[in-house]
Amino acid sequence: MAKLRFQISVSLDGFVAGPNPSEEHPLGEGGEQLHEWVFKLAAWRKPHGREGGEEGISNAIFEESTQNLGAVVMGRNMFGGGPGPWGEDPWMGWWGDEPPFHSPVFVLTHHERAPLEMKGGTTFTFVTDGVESALDQAKEAAGGKDVSLGGGASVAQQYLRAGLMDELQLNLVPVVLGAGTRLFEGLEGTDIRLEQTRVVEAPGVAHLFYRVNR
Amino acid sequence: MAKLRFQISVSLDGFVAGPNPSEEHPLGEGGEQLHEWVFKLAAWRKPHGREGGEEGISNAIFEESTQNLGAVVMGRNMFGGGPGPWGEDPWMGWWGDEPPFHSPVFVLTHHERAPLEMKGGTTFTFVTDGVESALDQAKEAAGGKDVSLGGGASVAQQYLRAGLMDELQLNLVPVVLGAGTRLFEGLEGTDIRLEQTRVVEAPGVAHLFYRVNR
Q1: B194 touches chain A (CB under 8 A)
Q2: How far is residue A28's CA from residue B97's CA, in Å, rounded to a whole number?
Q3: Nearest partner of B202 among B28, B16, B40, judged by Cα
Q4: Interchain pair B206, A205: CB under 8 A
Q5: What is the pTM of this model?
Q6: A47 and A67 in contact (C-beta within 8 Å)?
Q7: CA neighbor of B70 nearest in space, from B37, B112, B101
Q8: Do B206 and A206 count as a contact with CB atoms less than 8 A apart?
């Protein structure tokens, strides 16, 4: 059966973004350190139009985590454009004319908006009736492949609380941010049963894999 | 040079103890799950007077983490007996007549107390003049071997903030506690430079090793 898979980079103290996000620091102060391991990889650089890159363990892990995916679910913050109604000249996403998803993307929002078709096979569909509906639509669109949960932390927490996440991959980066957005928050009293399925050592990052049991 | 080494078991959401610690749940609700991997090990059971146990990867890691240690530093909470002055019939520690340390132990406290000599080579010395003094005394007593930081979280944070920790080993357990005592807290603005030195996959736990650079 198609699975909902989530992978994210996290600091050793549990943050997925640093404090005080701004235009200058969209991932918060220090937050870009969480993603340095990705930006170096050949498998990340190629779809982002850049040459070269590393082809080691993390590259293989990254390639694997992008395979057999047929659709994406993400939160409004991840799509961007600030909170509130979309307005007359609405935000088109962070990714330019041809976003790197090349698949249907379902954006969770409280504000209705017509679907947005981009170049390269990416279509943004705006879902206003909750996480379960977004996942159902994404699974339907994925045609038997898995669905990727794009983030951010708040959406991941919603799917964990709803018992709808199947696989969790943490890329644990050896930095201490001290403050910012926590991956695990507001989960007190939620019965989350994880099973460690794989641990991979790579230069400057630990890749940790978990199955979420029901 | 002798190093200050710290190893601790931590939940996936960053807690080293669960919420609401009590006599029934000294490690907080759910906190005992963090240590199940240890209690199963032959290398843990033997010094605690129990037979049998597992001899796999975690056992080797646990044995390694107890080698070349000449002294221990721990906080008052770890030693136990509640906060405040020691009183007339003072607490003698959680461990009975013959504690499993078999080495000098330096207990950080705000309340003076004469040293306490136990069976099997464990002596508790109570240090009231701060983390640096406790470490100096422990290094002196360790005679060239390393010093183990026994915990808890608050003492670990003090040593991290003071830049006095050399090696950090996290045993990451796939449970989500949701609340409790965080390992990393109150570290905002502290410049902590970690280097991942090793990652070891073991059944039901990931052993993560870091060097703390100055």
Answers
A1: yes
A2: 51
A3: B40
A4: no
A5: 0.95
A6: no
A7: B101
A8: yes
Q: Which residue has the tokens 């879902």?
A: A127
Q: Is a pLDDT exceeding 90 seen at residue B1?
A: no
Strand, coil or helix: A175: strand
B190 CB neighbours in chain A (<8 A) are 176, 178
Of A176, A183, A206, the CB nearest to B208: A206
| Cβ neighbours of B19 in A, within 8 Å | 188
For residues B169 and A112, give the distance between their C-alpha atoms in angstroms, rounded to a whole number: 48
Tell me which residue in A170, A175, A195 faces B194 most closely, judged by beta carbons: A175
Q: How far is CA B27 from CA A166, B18, B64, B173, in A?
A: 29, 6, 25, 15
The answer for residues whose C-beta is within 8 angstroms of residue B152's C-beta and 6 or more apart is: B16, B17, B74, B75, B77, B78, B181
Q: Are the CB atoms for A57 and A202 separated by under 8 Å? A: yes
Element (H, E) at A17: strand A15-17
- Write down the residue that tokens 């920790």 correspond to: B165
Contact B179 A188 (CB under 8 A): yes
Instruction: Please give the interface size between A and B, counted as residue pairs whose CB atoms are below 8 Å apart.
Output: 76
Assign A131 to helix, strand or coil.
helix
B94's tokens: 């959680």
ipTM over 0.90: yes
Contacts of A174 in chain B (CB under 8 A): 194-196, 210
Q: Reduce the DSSP state of residue A134 to 3 states and report it.
A: helix
Predicted local confidence at residue B137, as pLDDT: 98
- Mean pLDDT (chain B) is 95
Mutate to test the interface with B, among A9, A12, A57, A212 (most CBs of B within 10 A): A12
